[in-house]
Amino acid sequence: MDVLSDAIAAMRSGRPYSALTEADGPWSREFPDFAGARLHVVLVGAIKVVLPGREPVSLTPGDAVVLPRGGAHELVDAGVRTRLLCGAFQLEQARPHPLLAELPELLVQTARAGEHAPLQGIISVLGAELAEVRAGRDAVLPSLLEVLLVYLLRAWMDEHGDGRNWDAAMRDPVVGKALRAIHQDPAAPWTVEGMGAAAGLSRAAFARRFSQLVGQPPLGYLTWWRLALAARMLRTTDSTLAVIADRCGYGSQFAFANAFKREYGVSAGRYRRLRRSDHEHIGEWERPG
What we know:
Blueprint: H1 3-11, E1 17-23, E2 28-31, E3 36-44, E4 47-50, E5 57-59, E6 64-67, E7 73-77, E8 82-90, H2 98-101, E9 107-109, H3 117-131, H4 137-160, H5 165-171, H6 175-184, H7 192-199, H8 203-214, H9 218-236, H10 241-247, H11 253-264, H12 268-275
Antiparallel strand pairs: 1-8, 2-7, 3-6, 3-8, 4-5, 4-7, 6-9
């Protein structure tokens, strides 16, 4: 998988939730802080998105917002009948992937004629699925919602990502290639020398370039990513610690257990017992009104 897809997959805990909401007349809806990401897309009408300490953001049909860290906000009507597509994703917040952690608290993606056609297409498909209960709906909705989140993040990064460390890292011909290789095979016996040689750079030059863009040394990120994958497997599977250790690049269960406890502050077994309850469906929020 690529870095963005992996970042979302590794942090996800529980089943995403989506809803189609219609409102007419004066209304508002407050959304408290949420351990995950939220998104809102205007299908018909207009709304204002209000965050504490910020000027309201106005949205019209086709416009969308993403709150990567689920910050508290309010939706307020703009005096017209409105139809909204809303979504929520439970995400691991204690140890977020740095790619998502560096995003601002609110991403605004405005609709423009002829631009981001695939994004507008997935919005239409998801809206149609929510509007009518049909066979297979429960299987389709979570996948469509995750695709929508990826498309929104991709579109925003294409327009606003320049200068951000992780966007630059993924686009960099050397560091981006190394990141993709790590994500494709995290269990491989990676070394800084090997990564540098594959990129045609010396060990020192590669390490310096990687650290500058990613924010940590190559082996530091590799360890971080391996343990993030392990944490997801502990939350969402019944795999034994030995199997998880092997899939995440640790030579023994003992080495994995020590590394995990050092990073997370609890044993892998205790983490599994504490966090398995997170892998649940998000309850519905009430309609604005």
